[in-house]
From TrEMBL:
Cross-referenced Gene3D superfamilies: Multidrug efflux transporter AcrB transmembrane domain
MF terms in GO: protein-transporting ATPase activity
Lineage, uppermost ranks: Bacteria, Pseudomonadati, Campylobacterota, Epsilonproteobacteria, Campylobacterales
SUPFAM superfamilies, sorted: Multidrug efflux transporter AcrB transmembrane domain
Compartments, record wording: Cell inner membrane; Cell membrane
Keywords, ordered alphabetically: Cell inner membrane, Cell membrane, Membrane, Protein transport, Translocation, Transmembrane, Transmembrane helix, Transport
Name assigned to this protein: Protein-export membrane protein SecF
Entry's transmembrane regions: 137-154, 161-184, 190-209, 244-264, 270-294
Family: Belongs to the SecD/SecF family. SecF subfamily.
Organism in which the protein naturally occurs: Sulfurospirillum deleyianum (strain ATCC 51133 / DSM 6946 / 5175)
Length: 323
């Protein structure tokens, strides 16, 4: 299946500098949001208690806030709707100091005058555990990026690795900025989505880089911009089909999956759009910005082939007993 004409070459590099500058501007705005506003950590990372309650009728939020305010345990508690008017979530930073104390029974007593309800879920995470989870999440993301850098450097060469890492950092930064902008809580689900996007974005980038490498080895063309246009155009249908497939699956999760996976699906939606855009318009132009030279690359290939031929000759001479 081809969405685009197989033989047509699109001039992506004509506006390559404009694409790079505009997307770097978005990345800069995202960095400002990260530094100034920061993340809204969920219970997984910040520690605290989350109680999910389902009412038979519309939840009286004002009455609930009024009744909970009578107990200092719920000072500063956040009470928000959870997918419908009948369902709410109560978040508060105080964790029960007594193992024997039942938060559910305590809330039932406090909210007995607010209507008929069921407590569906209670999650309690200590601040120390939350801090450890946050630290391990950051370490896992850093290790993933380092592993990618090593893999691409071995698979291609170090400038391809640098370009791929710049693209990944660009994708993650803009995605995190959008998460802050839309007030999405950073939870384990969101972290899982970010780590998934690292692999997804890299996959698209590697396919284009692999096509560029093949074109560099097969063609005598020294115009790197033309080579990029050819390679991106040839992989455009594949990139578009894959991205649309993932997009519609994640969109279905976002629409019908409910609030439980809202953070995961929203992050994936953003990441698929940003990752596809960067793979097509950003990753290859970055190679030109960091000074990739077709001449030096071809000279390196020629030297590698020469060494391979010399090794084959030496092996043949050794096998014949002439060495």
């Amino acid at each position: 299946m081809e969405f685009f004409s197989k033989g047509k070459i699109y001039n992506f590099m004509k506006y390559g500098r404009s694409f790079v500058l505009s997307t770097l501007f978005l990345a800069a705005i995202s960095l400002v949001l990260i530094v100034t506003k920061g993340f809204d950590y969920g219970v997984d990372f910040a520690g605290g208690t989350v109680v999910q309650i389902k009412y038979e009728a519309k939840a009286p939020l004002d009455k609930i806030r009024e009744d909970l305010a009578k107990d200092k345990m719920f000072a500063g508690a956040q009470i928000t709707e959870f997918g419908s008017d009948e369902e709410i979530v109560i978040r508060f930073s105080t964790v029960s100091e007594s193992v024997g104390q039942d938060i559910g029974d305590h809330i039932r007593t406090l909210l007995k005058d607010t209507g008929s309800f069921d407590i569906r879920k209670i999650d309690i995470v200590g601040p120390k555990i939350g801090s450890e989870l946050r630290e391990k999440g950051i370490i896992s993301a850093i290790l993933a990026v380092i592993g990618i850098l090593i893999y691409v450097a071995v698979r291609f060469e170090w400038k391809f690795a640098v370009a791929s890492i710049i693209t990944l950092v660009h994708d993650i930064t803009i995605t995190l900025g959008a998460i802050i902008l839309f007030n999405i809580e950073i939870s384990l689900d969101v972290l899982a989505a970010v780590l998934t996007l690292i692999g997804y974005s890299l996959n698209d980038t590697i396919i284009i880089f692999d096509r560029i490498r093949e074109e560099l080895e097969e063609t005598k063309n020294m115009n790197f911009s033309e080579i990029i246009n050819i390679c991106v155009s040839k992989t455009l249908s594949r990139t578009t089909i894959t991205s649309l497939l993932v997009f519609f699956v994640v969109l279905t999760l976002y629409i019908f999956g409910g609030e439980i996976i809202h953070g995961f699906s929203f992050t994936m939606l953003l990441g698929v759009i940003i990752g596809t855009y960067s793979s097509i318009f950003i990753s290859a132009p970055f190679l030109t910005l960091i000074g990739f030279s077709v001449e030096k690359y071809k000279a390196k290939i020629a030297l590698r082939e020469k060494n391979k031929i010399e090794k084959a000759k030496m092996r043949a001479m050794y096998e014949k007993g002439t060495v």
